[in-house]
Prior knowledge:
Number of helices: 13
Radius of gyration: 19 Å
Number of strands: 10
Order of helices and strands: HEEEEEHEHHEHEHHHHHEHEHH
Shape: globular
Largest sheet: 10 strands, mixed
Distance between the termini: 46 Å
Strand content: 15-25%
Amino acid sequence: MKFIIAFFFLLQVFSASSQTDNFKSQEIAISEHIDGTLLELDNNTATTLAIIIAGSGPTDRNGNQNFMKSNSLKSLAESLTKHNIATFRYDKRVVKQILKGKVDPNIMFDDFVTDAQNIVDYFNEKNTYKNIVVIGHSQGSLVGMLASSKADAFISLAGAGQDISMVITEQVGKTAPFFIEETKRVFGILKSGKTTTDYSPALASLFNIELQPFMMNWMQYNPAEIISSLEIPVLIVNGTKDLQVSVEEAKLLNEALPNSEIVIIDNMNHVLFTIDGDDLENSKSYNEGFRKINPELITTITTFIDKLNK
């Protein structure tokens, strides 16, 4: 059940720029909820900005949580910036709430979409870049789809093609098949618009009564339907070593939007690292921030973005 649980754990510049290697890093507050890092090369010649949206749980701008420090999104941002693609990555609003000790019990999936839309609007109003590309990872893929109406392109990294109830049910089927029927039953109740406390204690991490309104809000969206409505260039990427989101999910997204590009990367896992070994190495990598991002992923993204500028 580890991966199921992990899946769930769930307008102004306020400081001067700082220098890191040949990067110029600027801290920006988009709203009262969202702070992030704009990363550019020193020469300020980037024509494209990539907005990176994190996956589920209290994930910060670097792709980390309390007990999971991969630095995957920081590494992704730095790798893209080295190719003269400006990047903006940000802490999810729940991260700021946790730091302040005031977590909103009524937070909804739609709040994450609002935050992403506000970021796109912020940079559109600045009119600094020719192209704005939204990159959504895992849960952030769906968030990004919903926030991309004013973007110039969208990239899905390890994004689901089915609604979240279907994805979780499949995870349960793989890791704890004896709970699959009960999982389906509880999701059926939630889909009817009702909450419930009638479930096995073993499923409490999935169906905690406090999480259910958030889950009901999230599961109303079908990623395949959402992506099919996009009228901008779309790239869909997944890895063959992804333990949480299978390559079949990427194929569902591609089938829903046939003119999208799809790239399946051998041996790339959910946190975008190359895994040559078994599932133990794979799971340990979630807390190994020294690893480098899969190089084929960077080539794939930069090639896609280069086409926008031609």
